[in-house]
What we know:
The chain has helices spanning about 5-10, 25-35, 155-160; strands at about 50, 70-75, 80-85, 90-95, 100-105, 120, 125-130, 135-140, 145-150, 165. With about 170 residues, the chain is of the alpha+beta class. It has one domain (about 5-165): Jelly Rolls (Sandwich), CATH 2.60.120.10. The longest helix has 12 residues, at about 25-35. The chain is globular. The N and C termini lie far apart (about 35 Å).
Amino acid sequence: MTDEPLLRHLGATATRPRFRPTKFARSQAVSELQQIAERPGANEKNRVSVLLANAEEEQTLTITHVLWAMFGLLPADQVQRPHRHQSVALDLILDCRPGCYTLLGDRLDHRGDIVEPQRVDWEPGGAFVTPPGKWHAHVNTSGADAHLVPVQDAGLQTYLRALDIRFTDRR
């Protein structure tokens, strides 16, 4: 990933490199994710994931100074409760079975559920975009674990102090 599309859009030119590529070994990422998932109470958290951070991005803990990414698990028969943020998200679905989907909507009801949600079904190798500010919840009723890699412009939003991530604590 590079910032070239953003720079082209802005009509700007890079004057110096801001980051070096970082390689993440699949075996290490899978091992780390498994350890996190096995911790007591892991499935009660909003996310079960490994943050893919670049050592050069100490302030934002992001993969580049602009982009944030994680390697995530949506455990079988679990729901990642609604949350929202001001960064745009591109969710890359690594593997899943039918019954994995995301619910998107503009507001929550008194129980913390998304009102009149739009359902986006996941497909292995597929991707979908979550617009900034949309409430969304990830659901897995498939009986098997699913894996995804969300990528967001959260590095830029964090630097601007505009990420504004919010979670519902209602159940």
